[in-house]
Design a protein that fits this description.
By secondary structure, the protein is mostly helical. The protein has a domain at about 20-190 and about 285-415: Up-down Bundle (Na+/H+ antiporter like fold), CATH 1.20.1530. It has 17 helices and four strands. The strands form two sheets. A two-stranded parallel sheet has the order 1-4. The protein has a two-stranded antiparallel sheet with strand order 2-3. Helix 4 runs antiparallel to helix 13, helix 8 (about 205-215) runs antiparallel to helix 9 (about 220-240) and helix 14 runs antiparallel to helix 16 (about 380-405). It starts with 10 loop residues before the first strand and ends in a 22-residue tail after the last helix.
Length: about 450
Amino acid sequence: MTHPVPPRRPVLLGRGSWSEARRIAGILRKETVGGALLLVAAVAAMIWANSPWAEAYESLRDLRVGPEVLHLNLSLAGWAGDGLLAIFFFVAGLELKREFVAGDLRDVRRAAVPIAAAVGGVILPAALYLLITRDVAGAGKGWAIPTATDIAFALAVLAVIGRFLPNALRTFLLTLAVVDDLVAIVIIALFYTDTLAPLPLAAALAPLAAFTVLVQRRVRAWWLLLPLAVAVWALVHASGVHATVAGVLLAFTVPVVRSERAGGPDAGPGLAEHFEHRFRPISAGMAVPVFAFFSAGVALGGLDGLVSAFGDPVVLGVVVGLVAGKPIGILAATWLTARFTRADLDEGLAWVDVAGVSVLAGIGFTVSLLIGELAFGVEGGEHVKVAVLAGSLAAALIAAVILRLRNRTYRRIHEIETADFDHDGVPDVYTTGPPGKAED
């Protein structure tokens, strides 16, 4: 008498498809270079801001350029935060849309994990921050500072300490950070808009609609698209909504799927992939490092200044939120998702691996600095900068310890994931059926 084979339990954090693995690897290479540039820019700003020439740094940061009549007479730091980061959020929006339309996350079961993790990684650090700063007047407006993940900074750390990290964990970190960016932009739009001018916001719909029509028709001409994108950005900025929101709105209009017309203008990569390929190097190589240069320069004031900063409950709230709240929230949400779906971790992975990546997600540099400036202003957020830098550094060091302890296991998984015994150019773990047939 034969016994029925019990159904296989769902897999949590599976390695996904070969096409997705290749795409993720390409993104990670570019973001890792961007992360290195970000670190260089941040260190340069810190050194300059604490040197005898600190006034020159402040003068450069506060130098105002741009037409006043268009409400664009901004400081260089303002141009970096409002302008260059719009490029960063445009790329993040493209990545998010592509993940859910054509990536592995179009599968609801796979999408549930990073979405739940991102939500958990926002709720708990915000709650811890509010708990710690509950008796400090005005501190509550900084609740969102410890909720963000800086993918470029995290990947720069990963390049040093986690070269052999399994593809599933890399994908989890990247998709978590992308969803995290969307949550951040929603938070910025809803909670950090002090005054709203409805007329410019309504006027922004006209160039946005024109941009949408053109990209839906697979038009790539920069001389048509760029003026419309700048117009959307300028009008959103004039409305009082943070201008980076314009980047996400524009990204969501771009089609992901290739045109099926023979010989059509979109033959080859989809338009979203085309734009992502063009703008990711600008985002990672220029926009984020320049923003970091103008935002990370904080005068520490020596040992006394550091002691004073860490006596501020806001600093303590941000550090605890990043170092403890972020990883615990991500890990708890992922574990609850596994329990709810009755899923098991993929073969070779353990919960300590998820914990290591969750701690790494506590690096909240770029968006945390942006939210700190929105909450407390450039001058009022000096302690916030110290907190973000300290919390991100602590998260990086703790993650390094956890992930290095598992390095031998990661090497073994890496060997399996890269083995190609049939020499067809596709690792054998991604092939099914006849040799050489890769998973889609």
